[in-house]
C-alpha cells in the first residue's frame, strides 16, 4: 500500500507529513442516559434534528430505548409506543385521549384541556388563572359568531379561520358546515325556550309589532317580530 502511494506522488513536493494513527477508534457522541428498575435505558428528552415535539404530548411520555429501538413510554399507564421521528405524534395523542383513558387512568383529558385565561379586575389590574376548556362551549360560541354577524355556513371551512383557531387553541376541533348548521339549530331551540319561559311567567299584556326591511346587498326581504311587555318589576 505504501509503495503505490509513493509511486503516485513521484515528482511532487510533499508539503504535509501524514502521521498514521494506529489503534485509535472514533468515539460517537453518547447521550446522557440512565436505567430504570426494568433495565430500560432512559434517554434524555432532547429534541432530535428533524423531529418536532409538541410540548403537551411529550409532557405525558418519556423516551426510552428498548432493544436498540426508540420508544415512547406513557407516564400514566406505562405503555410503550413507537417514537421514531417519521411516525409523528398523532398516535401518541390518540393513546392519551382514548386508550389511556379506557384503561382507567384518572382523567388524562383534564390535564390536557386546562388553559390559561386573563381576568380583569375592577381596579384595572389583571390576573392569570387556569380554567377548563369545554369543546361544547367553543362550538356554541362559533355558532353565535356566525349568526350574530350573518356569516355564511362555510365560514368555518375557511382555511384562514381554521388556521387561526388552531393557533389560538389546538384543542378546538374543526367544524363542517353541517355540524355548524346543527349547532345553530340547537342555539335557536335554546333561545326559543328562554323566550317562552319568559312569556309564561308574565302576567301583563304583550304587544307584538312587526318590522320589515330589504337588505341592499342581498335584495331579500326580512321581517322581525318583537314582543313588548311590562314585567313584574314594571320594566318594559
What low-confidence regions span 5 or more consecutive residues with pLDDT below 50?
A: 1-55
Rg over CA atoms: 33 Å
Helix amount, in percent? Answer: 25-40%
Most strands sheet: 5 strands, antiparallel
Proportion in β-strands: 15-25%
Judging from the principal axes of the Cα atoms, what is the shape? elongated
Instruction: Specify the structural class.
Output: alpha+beta
- Overall residue-averaged pLDDT value: 72
State the end-to-end CA separation.
106 Å
Beta strands, count: 9
How many helix segments?
7
Instruction: Please provide the ordered H/E string of secondary-structure elements.
Output: HEEHEEEHHEEHHHEE
Q: What is the spatial order of strands in the main beta sheet?
A: 1-2-3-4-5
> How many structural domains are formed by the residues?
2
Pfam families: zf-BED
Keywords: Metal-binding, Transcription, Transcription regulation, Zinc, Zinc-finger
Region (Disordered): 1-52
Domain BED-type: 52-107
Amino acid at each position: 500500500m505504501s509503495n503505490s502511494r509513493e509511486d503516485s506522488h513521484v515528482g511532487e513536493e510533499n508539503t504535509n507529513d501524514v502521521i498514521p494513527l494506529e489503534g485509535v477508534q472514533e468515539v460517537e457522541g453518547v447521550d446522557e442516559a440512565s436505567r430504570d428498575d426494568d433495565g430500560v435505558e432512559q434517554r434524555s428528552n432532547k429534541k432530535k434534528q428533524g423531529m418536532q415535539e409538541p410540548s403537551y404530548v411529550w409532557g405525558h411520555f418519556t423516551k426510552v430505548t428498548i432493544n436498540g429501538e426508540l420508544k415512547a413510554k406513557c407516564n400514566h399507564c406505562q405503555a410503550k409506543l413507537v417514537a421514531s421521528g417519521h411516525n409523528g405524534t398523532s398516535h401518541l395523542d390518540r393513546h392519551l385521549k382514548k386508550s389511556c383513558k379506557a384503561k382507567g387512568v384518572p382523567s388524562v383529558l383534564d390535564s390536557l384541556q386546562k388553559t390559561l385565561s386573563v381576568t380583569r379586575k375592577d381596579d384595572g389590574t389583571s390576573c392569570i388563572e387556569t380554567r377548563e376548556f369545554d369543546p361544547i362551549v367553543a362550538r356554541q360560541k362559533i355558532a353565535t359568531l356566525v349568526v350574530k354577524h350573518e356569516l355564511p355556513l362555510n365560514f368555518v371551512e375557511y382555511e384562514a379561520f381554521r388556521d387561526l383557531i388552531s393557533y389560538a387553541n389546538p384543542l378546538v376541533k374543526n367544524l363542517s358546515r353541517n355540524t355548524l348548521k346543527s349547532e345553530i339549530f340547537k342555539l335557536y331551540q335554546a333561545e326559543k325556550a328562554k323566550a317562552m319561559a319568559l312569556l309564561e311567567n308574565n302576567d301583563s299584556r304583550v304587544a307584538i309589532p312587526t318590522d320589515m326591511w330589504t337588505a341592499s346587498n342581498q335584495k331579500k326581504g326580512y321581517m322581525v317580530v318583537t314582543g313588548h311587555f311590562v314585567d313584574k318589576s314594571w320594566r318594559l
